[in-house]
Amino acid sequence: MKTQKTLRISFPTSMACTLFLWDGNARGYQVVGKTLTELSVKVQRRSERRDMASKARLIYGATTQTLIG
Length: 69
Hints:
Layout (H helix, E strand, L loop, with lengths): L4 E6 L3 H9 L7 E5 L3 E5 L3 H15 L2 E6 L1
Antiparallel strand pairs: 1-3, 1-4, 2-3
């Protein structure tokens, strides 16, 4: 049985979080939690998590963490 993996992305501002979503970076994934500056997105594949986390850090100044549960 596969474990569920969620990528938690914390943005420095609410505008960065909004732009991340508007730019379609979470399209095709299930957003399981959202606040003004934080997103939790279910991303099962390691390569897809890596790509999403890298883009969030480099372009939007976010910090990321993978949660397994």
